[in-house]
Design goal:
The chain has 219 residues and is mainly α. The protein folds into three domains: 59 residues; 34 residues, no CATH class; 61 residues, no CATH class. Helix 1 crosses helix 2, helix 2 crosses helix 3 and helix 7 packs across helix 9. The chain is elongated.
Length: 219
């Protein structure tokens, strides 16, 4: 009879109580409680006997963690909708999709929040007359990382001073330059950089000043 009680209890609780785990320990606890109830006059074939047994000893049973209740589309936040797959988003009601589209538009219009390091570096660049550009940031970052320095205001100031010659000036600094300074700091370096990127001419097969046809005929 004990084994039959265990089988019946397992089948019943699997259907009605998804959190119930079929294992020898749970079967032993439920069987003992059901038998106790039967001894007191409960009907062993009645569903209520199993329910009562479960209620009496559920704290002793090993149960699965309770799954969180799934939210309705109306309860989802815009951030939660953003991480849904495209297919899941398409199944949302039209009013929620329109609200999500407006939220996405507002997010794109918002300026990104600068980190503390970015804000410090931007301020230092501007005060020193340098552009807050990717190239300048890469130059400073390479100098800092090579020395294993923390990105503090003092260390960043030191890095800007050390890398000054290789940093791009800001637009305001360029506008205030004299003609000679502009040529020396902007035009000449850019021309040398452009010149360095040009392919070098291949050496001629013919002597300098000699026409190719004459050279070939005289050989």
């Amino acid at each position: 009879m004990d084994s039959q009680f265990a089988i019946n209890a397992a089948k019943y609780f699997l259907e009605k109580h998804p959190r119930y785990i079929v294992c020898p320990e749970n079967s032993t606890i439920l069987t003992a409680e059901i038998l106790r109830l039967v001894d007191e006059g409960a009907d062993p074939s009645a569903v209520t006997t199993y329910d009562t047994a479960f209620s009496n000893c559920w704290e002793q049973l090993t149960l699965r963690d309770e799954a969180p209740q799934q939210k309705t589309p109306e309860e989802l936040t815009m951030e939660e909708i953003a991480v849904l797959s495209p297919g899941e988003q398409e199944r949302l009601p039209d009013p929620i999709l329109r609200r999500f589209a407006n939220w996405e538009l507002q997010q794109r219009k918002q300026k990104p929040v600068l980190s503390e390091t970015d804000a410090i570096l931007k301020s230092l660049f501007e005060s020193a007359g340098f552009a807050d550009s990717l190239k300048n940031r890469a130059t400073i970052g390479k100098w800092m990382d090579a020395r294993g320095l923390l990105y503090s205001r003092g260390n960043l100031t030191q890095a800007i001073d050390a890398c000054e010659a290789g940093l791009e000036p800001s637009e305001a600094a360029i506008e205030s330059m004299s003609g000679d300074e502009y040529k020396a700091r902007i035009v000449d370096p850019r021309f040398r950089e452009w010149q360095a990127k040009q392919p070098k001419p291949e050496p001629s097969r013919f002597p300098l000043g000699v026409r190719p046809t004459r050279y070939l005929h005289e050989r």
